[in-house]
Amino acid sequence: MASSLATLIVSSSFFVSFILVLQLSSFPSCRADVGTAASYSAPYLPSACYGREATEFPSSNLFAAAGDGIWDNGAACGRQYLVRCISAAQPRTCIPDQSIQIKIVDYAPTATTLVLSDKAFGSLANTSAALINIEFQQV
Ligand SMILES: *[C@@H]1O[C@H](CO)[C@@H](O)[C@H](O)[C@H]1NC(C)=O
């Protein structure tokens, strides 16, 4: 009796960890973090990463300034992130099922995770919002 109970416990915990491993491996979004994003407008130069050099800016205009949380003392320059809008104070602010890839080109001394270019922000959300909640993941 006792030994079959032990077997049951061992096998069910094995089963639970098996399910957990399956979930971790099949959902890449598990590696994503959540944060906030605001936006900024031109002029975008000079930038903390590239000075007056505009050639480092993606031609898509999908770029951002890194906030204090991810600036990493300048190491964030050139990093690329996949960004998705998850919510905002005002309902229906996020454009559904939109995710974009942005490049860090500047520094924003703020607690906001990312300060997105107008183009990047407008690709994710209604631009009448000042702040959105995001899911982001370095690529
Ligand atoms: C954007 O938000 C404003 C203010 O909430 C609203 O009046 C407007 O209709 C929204 N625009 C779109 C395209 O949803």
CATH fold-level assignment of the largest domain: Barwin-like endoglucanases
Which structural class do the helices and strands define?
A: alpha/beta
* Rg computed from alpha carbons, rounded to a whole number of angstroms: 20 Å
The multimeric state of the shown protein is single chain
- The largest beta-sheet arranges its strands as 1-5-2-4-3-6
Gap from first CA to last CA: 52 Å
Question: The biggest beta sheet, please?
Answer: 6 strands, mixed, barrel
Average pLDDT score: 87
Fourth CATH level, the homologous superfamily of the largest domain: RlpA-like domain
CATH class wording of the largest domain = Mainly Beta
Discrete helix count: 3
Report strand %: 25-35%
What compounds are bound to the protein?
2-acetamido-2-deoxy-beta-D-glucopyranose
Number-wise, the strands total 6
SSE string, helix = H, strand = E? HEEHEEEHE
Q: Just name the CATH architecture of the largest domain.
A: Beta Barrel
Shape summary: globular
Low-confidence stretches: 18-27
Helical fraction: 25-40%
